[in-house]
Amino acid sequence: MSRPRKDPRAERAAQRVAGATRPRFDLARTPETATSGRPRRDPRAEERLALVPGTLRRRLDRTRRAGEAAIPAPQPLATPAPDAPALRRIPEPAFLVALVPDAPGGRLTPHDRQLFGAARLLADAGGGAVVALVDPAADDLAAAGADRVLTLPVSGYDPEGKALALDAALAALGLRHLLFPESAEGGDLARRVAALSGEALFAGAESLTAKAVTRAAHGRRTEQRGAPPTLISLAPDAVAPHAGTLHEALPVAFAFPATTGGAILAAEFVAADPARVSLAEADFVTSAGNGVSDFETFRALIAALGATPGASRMVCDAGLMPRAAQVGASGTVLDARCYFALGIAGAPQHLQGVAKCEHVVAVNTDLHAAMIERAGLAIVADAQEVMPALLRLIAEEASA
Amino acid sequence: MRIAVLLSAGRHAVSGRPAPVPVELQAVGLAADFVERHGADLTGLHAGPDVGPLRDALGHGLPNLVHLVTGADDDPLPSLAAALREGAFDLILAGRVAQGGEDSGLLPYALARALGLPIVSDAAALAPGETPGTLNVEQALPRGARRRLLVRLPVLVTVHPAAPAARPFAFAGARRGILETRPGLAAPRASTGLEERPYRPRPKLIAKAAAGASAAERLKAATEAASGGGRLLVDPPPEEAAREILAYLAGIGVVAKR
Ligand SMILES: Cc1cc2nc3c(=O)[nH]c(=O)nc-3n(C[C@H](O)[C@H](O)[C@H](O)COP(=O)(O)OP(=O)(O)OC[C@H]3O[C@@H](n4cnc5c(N)ncnc54)[C@H](O)[C@@H]3O)c2cc1C
Ligand SMILES: Nc1ncnc2c1ncn2[C@@H]1O[C@H](COP(=O)(O)O)[C@@H](O)[C@H]1O
Hints:
The structure holds two protein chains of two kinds.
Chain A: E1 2-6, H1 8-15, E2 16-17, E3 24-25, E4 35-41, H2 43-50, H3 65-70, E5 87-88, E6 96-99, H4 110-124, E7 129-134, H5 141-144, E8 148-151, H6 159-173, E9 177-181, H7 184-197, E10 201-205, E11 207-208, E12 213-217, E13 222-226, E14 231-234, E15 246-247, E16 250-251, E17 264-270, E18 284-288, H8 295-305, E19 308-311, H9 313-317, E20 338-342, H10 348-354, E21 359-364, H11 370-374, E22 377-380, H12 383-399
Parallel strand pairs in A: 5-15, 6-7, 6-9, 7-8, 8-16, 9-14, 10-14, 18-19, 18-20, 20-21, 21-22
Antiparallel strand pairs in A: 1-4, 2-3, 11-12, 12-13
Helix pairs in contact in A: 6-7, 8-12
Chain B: E1 2-6, E2 10-11, E3 18-19, H1 22-38, E4 41-48, E5 64-69, H2 76-87, E6 91-95, H3 107-115, E7 119-128, E8 134-140, E9 146-152, E10 155-159, H4 171-176, E11 178-183, E12 195-198, H5 215-223, E13 231-234, H6 238-252
Parallel strand pairs in B: 1-4, 1-6, 4-5, 5-11, 6-10, 7-10
Antiparallel strand pairs in B: 2-3, 7-8, 8-9
Helix pairs in contact in B: 2-3
Bound molecules: flavin-adenine dinucleotide and adenosine monophosphate.
């Protein structure tokens, strides 16, 4: 990276021929000790180090944190594989911390994982164990941080039955804490359990440690703070999810009392109509940018894919799409699972709106567009040709 | 059929002045629509020391409001429970959470428990059921989905902000509306034992970027692909591009697999 800095004056002085009346220099002679001692920067080597490997475009990471990690340091051969997390067993827990994840369809949401993080925080402070109370058996509870798993006896939409089961478990198992996510379903359940058990609920905790929890009250004007009570519901993005150790997720049995049918006579799930849901709530957004000129086909494609329409600011400014469809910093920040960008360059203001999307598909004629780099599936092609081809393929599959 | 709407003394989200809670005005709107279409008695209920700006609810479609006068530090639960029991209401509407009080959304649940009523949360629309004595409730779920529930009356229902917008204020309605004042029950609130101090917003967790990362890293985490280095197809024929895209979308489950 750096080599000794040359000192031209010292070099010159070393070449001087001694003894002459006029100053004479023997330039053929190489000086022995002519360096100043200060190191000299080598910008080319620095740049080589800062180059981020594995990207399509040449990218430099000046902070060099990633660069240093990417250069393989000479390592002893006998290092253990770092990827297998250690299994931690808690055979005789001092107390139990239970949590009730939403886990729609048996898959933990990010909010659920944060709930596990909070439960581990409370349990690890005193040698306790985490019990996950789930209704369909959810996946990877061991990696999420559950020591024990208890399956609740519920079928269909029956929050009252679930609350009664939880209330029974709370009393019988002597749970020190029972945690819920402050989501639509988890929040409802938490309040039902609070009303049933007569325990106070600490609703919407915004920070949580083993010693104190806080929440907002009085129209977010005051903050209430206290030691963690039995029932807590946790606001989203308040606690980091658990990472590092693997836990046992041992199934445990518990005799729940039998419940009778509640007041809900029938429940029917109605999926969202993608054309009508607001952009902030949408699950799958398809967006048009300045590279789309054929809006008839774009609208047909949206209807065929069952996506919520979005657009870049250029398109909204031109009046080709309503302002409500604008995605980005000055439009809507999406919470979607998948984003499909047609002819969008990917300006930072636009990418901010897509930051939370897990999957991105981009079609753009420009190989160097930022959107192409952001995408999980990037297609360098003309959107005006890909859109009709997609429509044809969907029609073909529908008829087949 | 008799409908009651519970109104709490709210505070404006920005100015902090006393104001009705928006979602409770939406509940008033839902109830007023129900009354116009299917006929019913509608009453608002508030327990507290003062009605203040809740009188405005009369202008948003509420024909009469009952104010149960309690002390400033009294628990509204016993007064409300007594009034609701006496009124023999079939449908009780409340907001999801209040804004300006404890803001925990617990009161409707505690009230349902005290009255022995079932409770249904997050209603966005109401309609009478096919058989008498039942009610169709459309429950708002995250991501714009809905759940249609058929429940037996009497029931307590909390209203979700996804319900239709509140009716605009009408001065004539506010003048026509009747405000009735009754004494409530004194019930000193038990101390929560929580320490209170001015609210301080806390930073939200930012996904992926570690704590203490530089601004450049946080921007990178916010704008770069989650999985890093996706698949790239340069100038494929449109048919192949379409196949690839559809297969990818079906793979993550946003379009149906065929
Ligand atoms: C304060 C501020 C706030 C802003 N907020 C937002 C915001 O919230 N949302 C937002 O979107 N923008 C916002 N912008 C604007 C933003 O900076 C960009 O100007 C804008 O996002 C660019 O839109 P675009 O990608 O559609 O258009 P362009 O930048 O014109 O990009 C068009 C892309 O389409 C490609 N293309 C061209 N022809 C085709 C074709 N036939 N097939 C496929 N691809 C093709 C091109 O290669 C190019 O990459 C904001 C700007 C400012 C200054
Ligand atoms: N003092 C009160 N009088 C009447 N209704 C109330 C009162 N306090 C709360 N409510 C109702 O209960 C809901 C939830 O309140 P809270 O539990 O305080 O968040 C509110 O939206 C109101 O509908």
